[in-house]
């Protein structure tokens, strides 16, 4: 295959602090919103995902009990906190050019509203970045990846409270200033458009019994837009060559049929999702949001200066996660739903296969998505997440034959190459869960994405030994050939 990947393309992998680090309570770390998610094998499997979408007041209260015996997997992660040198060395062995990661807000400001940062937390990330740079790995850093301090939820009500802008800006300025010579690429919020589907982990709203959830979701999002713009301005002033991006979850939507109602429903659904990147990349609220807010009963409280700071500080690039596509119908009750498509639900596409978790696999949809986003924004694109969750088996000889993952990734990378040939500007690709981590949606360990196996089960038991999978050597060759050898 002829490679159209640019010579400086950022090949690498991605993780999030709340799923990988562990070290909860160590060196002053506080509780985050993700530290509340349980894993209980006796719980019905549908509840594993349900809690991702609906957090209860009781669960938040129980999670703060220091005497609780329940298992909260994201507090343990895979203990990257103590294994980061080994893990980054393995990333370097694969040839990573970039490592997309996040900074745990609660390591720097444990409760979120402190004035002075936690030096032990800052020192940890100094060590992580130094280890990356030692191997020539460019850190791509998310400032907020489902990791806001739990205290800002319980005491302030999350992002709908305008005070949280100040707390986030203080945190962001602290780490940008600290790491200004070590980090060039920054992302302000991970999957900012997912507030629509899981408001608790995105903006800190406990949805249970909430009297006006739509109002609070979009007010919280508006405050994130303002905070992102302020931080983008600060970063550009402090680090002139820095690049600041937004990040969305992009699930390509296609009409289930050529019924005009299906076509219109698809347009509306896509706007609901892309509204977030429209604001951050273009710098203003699109005209269609007037009707969208009217139909949702949302009346944003916009303070003087908000729209100006958003307009003056759009992001430099658009990053996104891509795992699947989804068909849309105006009459979903008549059709089979795609139950595994977490972001939009949607209708099952009969032309696509599904993963064990019901995610419909659509590699060609990635090429379409890249073209759509580039046509829409005319800004560089970065694929921040893409991968296949599967149950991997360790053979008797210690090998792991994850050829299904290789096949998934190969097909998607082929489509990135096609998009580059189309003229789309893509500057990086970081495969999701490059080392096995705790699942965001189900809190499982057995739903694995990595090139590197971690000996740990769903209950947190295991040696935590790192084992290379078949995909490890395959991805190493892909990077070495700059995408020519797949």
Automatic annotation (TrEMBL):
Gene3D superfamilies associated with the record: Glycosidases (3.20.20.80)
Pfam families linked: Glyco_hydro_1
Sorted UniProt keywords: Glycosidase, Hydrolase
Family the UniProt entry places it in: Belongs to the glycosyl hydrolase 1 family.
NCBIfam families, sorted: PRK09593.1, PRK09852.1
Protein name: 6-phospho-beta-glucosidase
Organism of derivation: Enterococcus innesii
């Amino acid at each position: 295959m002829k490679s159209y990947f640019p010579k400086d393309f950022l090949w690498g992998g991605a993780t999030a602090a709340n799923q990988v680090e562990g070290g909860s309570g160590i060196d002053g770390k506080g509780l985050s919103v993700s530290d509340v998610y349980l894993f209980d094998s006796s719980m019905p499997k549908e509840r594993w995902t349900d809690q991702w979408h609906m957090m209860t007041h009781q669960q938040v209260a129980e999670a703060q009990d220091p005497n609780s015996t329940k298992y909260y997997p994201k507090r343990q992660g895979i203990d990257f906190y103590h294994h980061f040198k080994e893990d980054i060395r393995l990333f370097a062995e694969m040839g990573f050019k970039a490592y997309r990661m996040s900074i745990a807000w609660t390591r720097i400001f444990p409760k979120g509203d402190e004035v002075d940062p936690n030096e032990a937390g800052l020192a940890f990330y100094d060590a992580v970045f130094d280890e990356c740079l030692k191997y020539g790995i460019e850190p791509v850093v998310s400032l907020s990846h489902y990791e806001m301090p739990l205290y800002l939820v319980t005491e302030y009500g999350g992002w709908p409270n305008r005070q949280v802008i100040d707390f986030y800006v203080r945190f962001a300025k602290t780490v940008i200033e600290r790491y200004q010579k070590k980090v060039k690429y920054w992302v302000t919020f991970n999957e900012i458009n997912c507030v629509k589907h899981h408001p608790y982990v995105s903006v800190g709203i406990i949805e249970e019994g909430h009297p006006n959830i739509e109002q609070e979701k979009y007010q919280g999002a508006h405050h994130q837009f303002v905070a992102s713009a302020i931080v983008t301005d600060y970063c550009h002033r402090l680090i002139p060559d820095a690049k600041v991006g937004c990040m969305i979850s992009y699930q390509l939507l296609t009409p289930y049929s050529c019924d005009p109602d299906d076509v219109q429903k698809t347009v509306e659904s896509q706007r609901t999702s892309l509204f977030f990147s429209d604001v951050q990349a273009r710098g203003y609220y699109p005209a269609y949001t007037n009707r969208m807010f009217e139909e949702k009963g949302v009346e944003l409280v916009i303070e003087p200066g908000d729209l100006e700071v958003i307009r003056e500080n759009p992001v430099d690039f658009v990053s996104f996660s891509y795992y699947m596509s989804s068909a849309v119908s105006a009459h979903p009750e008549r059709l089979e739903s795609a139950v595994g498509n977490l972001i939009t639900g949607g209708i099952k596409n009969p032309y696509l296969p599904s993963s064990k978790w019901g995610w419909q696999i659509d590699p060609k949809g990635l090429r379409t998505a890249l073209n759509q986003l580039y046509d829409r924004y005319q800004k560089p694109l970065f694929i921040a997440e893409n991968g296949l969750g599967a149950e991997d088996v360790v053979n008797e000889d210690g090998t792991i034959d994850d050829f299904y993952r290789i096949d998934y990734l190969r097909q998607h990378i082929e489509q990135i190459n096609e998009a580059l040939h189309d003229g789309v500007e893509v500057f990086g690709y970081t495969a999701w869960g490059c080392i096995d981590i705790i699942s965001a949606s189900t809190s499982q360990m057995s739903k694995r994405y990595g090139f590197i196996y971690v000996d740990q089960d769903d209950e947190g038991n295991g040696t935590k030994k790192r084992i290379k999978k078949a995909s490890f050597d395959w991805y190493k060759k892909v990077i070495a050939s700059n995408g020519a050898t797949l």
